[in-house]
Amino acid sequence: MKCPKCKSENVSIQMMETGSKTKKTGNGLGGIAHNTFRAGLAISTLGLSNLVVPKAKGKEKTKTKMQKIALCQECGHSWTIK
User: In 7-72, which ranges are continuous DSSP H helix?
Assistant: First the structure.
């Protein structure tokens, strides 16, 4: 592979992260019921139950976009490879 700018063959190829997207999902009906029960229990025990009973959490899923980038070691020019 040759650099389009200086025509050197000293080129390295790297995978770079160009973007990411995080999708969050809620607790659902079971999680809402759990958190409501947890709140009632906390009121009746003056908050001491919160030390033992964990809070229901939602889920996260992250997708990342990767792209091939070529970098000339001689002149520093970079370009994307398709």
Answer: 28-44
In a domain, 4, yes or no: no
How far apart are alpha carbons 54 and 40 in whole angstroms?
Answer: 14
- Reading the block at residue 73, the tokens are 């070691």
Enclosing domain of residue 76? 11-81
The rounded distance, in Å, linking the Cα atoms of 11 and 76 is 9
56's tokens: 């229901």
Amino acid at site 5: K
Q: Residue 59 belongs to what H/E stretch?
A: strand 59-72
Tell me if 1 is assigned to some domain: no
Tens-digit pLDDT profile for the chain (82 aa)? Answer: 899 999 999 999 999 998 999 988 877 777 888 888 999 999 999 999 988 888 888 888 999 999 999 999 999 999 999 8
